[in-house]
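Researcher: Re-running this chain for the archive, since the previous output was lost when a drive failed. Same request as before.
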Amino acid sequence: MRYCPSLLIITGLVVLLCSEASARIDTVRLDNGTAGPTNTVRAQWEESVILSPGRPCVVKKVLVYYGAGSGTDEIRITGDASEGTIPPSQYCFSYNTLVTQTVNVSSAGWVEVDVSAHGLVIGGFDRIVVQHLMKSGGPIWAQDNNGMAAVTSFLYDPITPNPNFFNIPGIYYRATGDYLVRLVVEDVHEFRPAPQFADVTAIMGLTNTDGSPIRSDQASVVDWDNDGFD
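Model: Regenerated structure tokens:
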């Protein structure tokens, strides 16, 4: 993004004085920063957290605090599940994976995962999910020590038949706290426009012969200027 604050005309030449406009960098997090317990290792189980940037942005990094284990780990960013309240499972990886990055974990602590090369852009109100599969002796995410205000961190068993859902394999459990998993994002727009509505019913001709609005139980929402805000 570039802007030109001044214009000089020198001997017939037009000179543009330009400077870079830096977009805001922010960290999206739910945890309180204090590492608490870790889950018991269960091979092929998933640890997942749903994060909501809340505005159009580019995902630059994923920050993960590992509470135990070592070795390689595959960090996966996936799209929001259609249900809206639980993350997608590994059965959706083939079509719902946005980014995959392998990291090496040598000890407990923070690991910074640079995903900027993927150019992942998130829409205004999209949620995304950060996930990984547990394995014996492998790295495990830490949870914070004060529980969750909203349930957004999950542990998923993809193997055991669910007696509450036709015995189809797969049972979700809530984590005891927020996983220490964060996103470093860069805003797509330097300034967020103020929300506003304009009544264009009459202008668009959506009126009866007496000029009153046509009543309808349907509505459409359009991002008319393609800025990522509906």
